[in-house]
Amino acid sequence: MSKITQYSTIGALMSGHFAGDFSVKSTHSPTLFGLGCSCGISGELTVCGGEFWEATAGESLHQLDDRQLPFLQVTDFVAENSLKATGINDKNLEHRLSEQLAINNIFLAVNVKSRFDEVVIRRPQRDESQTRTVQEMSDSQQVDTHHNIAGQLIGFWTPALFGRISVPGFHFHFLSDDRKISGHVLSFTAANAVVDYQVKHSIEINNPTSEAYNTLDIDVAQLDQLISHVEK
Ligand SMILES: [Zn+2]
């Protein structure tokens, strides 16, 4: 699978469609790579080597068996291009990659491996009721800063043109090498890192098929602001 496959869109998720509509139990590819969230946005998901890791505030990192998910963005990742980078961080990665190829209009799958000087990650609280709003979910998230930690950033570069389908710019989730720490990346710095990436020419969007999705009120005018506020 050289394409990116997506279940739902960041626009639907940020409009409050947190229901786990998609079963991805059949996805067994050993090179499956990507990110998502679990039902009710109870956890940030990182997909690495076909394994699904769920990071939830107040819980140890664990693999997810029940894969009924509201949002998932995955691909089969092959490190077709590699960049050895020094002094890299969330602010200059775009520029560093732009020196390699023009990225403004294309999708990339990106994997950054390092012993990071600092990684700031965010994890949601579990919500058994699955009735909270986007704002309630956002307000309850826990932010943690980790120093001198070996691991990888797993995610995608999405051009602004597609910013209501996926998070525009970089969207990374972190996974530590010891499989103890994970979450949505807010910032990172690394003195030395290997940045592997693969251009993705195609993206497949699978919309939810439920009546709840069909009748979901999506305020497109507010959406860009909301995505920027909650996901950046
Ligand atoms: Zn995320």
From TrEMBL:
EC number: 4.1.1.5
Keyword annotations of the record: Acetoin biosynthesis, Decarboxylase, Lyase
InterPro entries xrefs: Acetolactate_a_deCO2ase
Catalytic activity, as annotated: (2S)-2-acetolactate + H(+) = (R)-acetoin + CO2
Keyword Ribosomal protein: no
Family label: Belongs to the alpha-acetolactate decarboxylase family.
Name recorded for this polypeptide: Alpha-acetolactate decarboxylase
Species of origin: Rosenbergiella gaditana
